[in-house]
Design a protein that fits this description.
The chain has 219 residues and is mainly alpha-helical. It contains eight helices and four strands; from the N terminus they run ααββαααββααα.
Amino acid sequence: MEMARGRSHRARIRRYDRFKRGIDVVVSAVGLVVSAPVQALTAAVVWKAHGSPVLFRQERPGKDGRPFELVKFRTMLTPSPTHQTDAERLTRVGQILRSTSLDELPTLWNVLKGDMSLVGPRPLLMQYLPLYTARQARRHEVRPGITGLAQARGRNSLSWEDKFELDVEYVDRRSLRLDAQIIAETVRSVLRRDGVSAEGHVTMSEFMGANSIEPGASS
């Protein structure tokens, strides 16, 4: 009986993953068109505040840990002798973009390409891959998302352990209902500007491995 339920659950998950990819393509394509004026204005503001380039590009691990190039609007100045730490490099414009999640709009292109999904565990840094426990590494069984269960439940204010537990919970429970709930909770969190940064950090602290007890990493 237990094996039959397990097979049924896995079959349901596979069907949903196919359906979910269709939703990702439609929503990201429409989102890129609808948000084009906002993205153009944001690009102009970023260029004026930060100079060129306007976009931040960085290799991140996707499904099964395969690397892809994440694209976002820049929120920080280029490192210089007077701007070295994240706190020194993050500008007022960057703070506003992060708190409103406007910096994430170009990431819709990653969703359209299939690198990411609208909902899933956030893509972290390549250097974290060897630091995960086997359970934590399960977050890479699905495409990373623009938002996820961890972002809806606390964003950067969560500890690493809580964040990863929510990521794995999402992998096991993903469904249309859960995705809709996550998106609704994310919208509320963004409007309230909750959990934008961990205490004592511009965004999140660095993940040091399975025994790390500090909240989050640059995302």
